[in-house]
Specification:
By secondary structure, the protein is an alpha/beta fold. The protein has helices spanning 16-24, 44-60, 75-87, 100-109, 223-228, 238-253, 258-278, 303-315, 340-356; strands at residues 5-6, 67-72, 92-97, 114-120, 142-145, 166-169, 186-190, 201-206, 283-284, 295-299, 318-319, 330-333. The radius of gyration is 21 Å and the shape is globular. The two termini are 29 Å apart.
Length: 357
């Protein structure tokens, strides 16, 4: 069976060269006589993997020296609690509500203090990024979700909130384009979209924000625990970190870095958006200035036709095109590893479907 085009929002498609390299090293990594999945995280061989991975990520993202990179578990959802436990010192934080994950982060933050929703795009089904007209200058942090996986919006610029640390959930857009890390206090991301397989959560945190966890914070939810122990206080997700290192090598040496990655992603997105904007059957659901490069939701306007399209797509080798269960319709997640040929093939299939229906 040939490989399908996988448009899943996560776990997502991985580069074939990365999968091939992992397969070649599956039973024996280099000359260790064992798989990465079997080796001790305290061994010299594994230390070279995890510290090399951190070095690569720091280089590719130009992470400043005064930031720590933490390799954690628990998914991005665990960060909804970990952030307020560590950063909400005065008991106040501001949140922008731009979709389901931002809403979940807000609700979790509300458990630990006064979380304020300073802006929301719920009024138009999260189809745009709202302006921030006011915010609390005494807030401990300002939380955003940089790319909305379900509704397909993205921040093309950061809100101006002065010196308040910006905390961003970048799960579905990290490594898709260059960013200025110094403009953020905390960046966190689940790995299963652009960084590797599920199981790893990456946190990039400014050092001055570490060490202020509220009393009673569980040891494993304290950033200082992991910063002081180089992400190895307990057994880290060893194989996911190894896979992440292979993805980073692919970005740097095969794709040419994040500037080239952004150009590639823009080309892919333009192919699909251009078709959607000129189709008589399909239409994009996000306002043009706020469209994601990673997650592109679209509809026909008829639920029965949406279901038929998804079913016929599977038969043609296009899988996971169904929209999130909370919104329906369709969604093409075209993360870094989705080849441009996959997007072109999808558009050709959509054209044929439109002609025959």
């Amino acid at each position: 069976m040939s490989r399908v085009y996988n448009f899943s929002a996560g776990p997502a498609v991985l580069p074939e060269s990365v999968l091939g390299r992992a397969a070649a090293e599956l039973t024996e990594y280099q000359d260790t006589g064992q798989s990465v999945m079997e080796m001790s995280h305290r061994s010299k061989a594994y230390e070279a993997i995890i510290f090399g991975c951190e070095k690569s990520l720091r280089k590719i993202m130009s992470v400043p020296d005064n930031y720590k990179i933490l390799f954690l578990q628990g998914g991005a959802s665990s960060q909804f609690a970990m952030v307020p436990l560590n950063l909400m010192r005065s008991g106040k934080a501001d949140y922008m509500i731009t979709g389901q994950w931002a809403q979940k982060a807000f609700e979790e933050g509300s458990r630990f203090g006064t979380a304020t929703a300073v802006a929301s795009s719920k009024d138009k089904t999260f189809s745009y990024i709202p302006d921030v007209e006011k915010f609390d200058k005494d807030a401990d942090y300002f939380h955003i979700c940089s790319n909305n996986t379900i509704f397909g919006t993205r921040f093309d610029k950061l809100p101006d909130v002065g010196d308040i640390p910006i905390v961003s959930d970048m799960s579905s857009c990290i490594l898709s384009e260059p960013i200025d890390v110094s403009k953020y206090g905390v960046i966190y991301a689940g790995a299963q979209k652009n960084m590797g397989p599920a199981g790893l959560t990456v946190v990039i945190i400014r050092e001055d924000l570490i060490g202020n966890a509220r009393e009673g914070t569980p040891t494993m939810f304290n950033y200082k625990t992991h910063a002081d122990n180089q992400s190895m206080y307990n057994t880290p997700p060893t194989y996911s970190i190894y896979m992440h290192s292979l993805v980073l090598d692919w970005i740097e040496n095969e794709m040419g870095g994040l500037e080239k990655m952004k150009e590639y992603n823009q080309k892919k997105a333009a192919i699909l958006y251009d078709y959607l904007d000129n189709s008589a059957m399909f239409s994009a659901t996000v306002q043009r200035p706020f469209r994601s490069l990673m997650n592109i939701p679209f509809v026909t306007g008829r639920e029965d036709l949406d279901k038929k399209f998804i079913a016929e797509g599977v038969k043609q080798g296009f899988v996971n095109l169904g929209g999130h269960r909370s919104v329906g319709g369709m969604r093409a997640s075209i993360y870094n590893a989705m080849p441009i040929d996959g997007v072109k093939a999808l558009v050709e299939f959509m054209k044929e479907f439109e002609k025959s229906n």
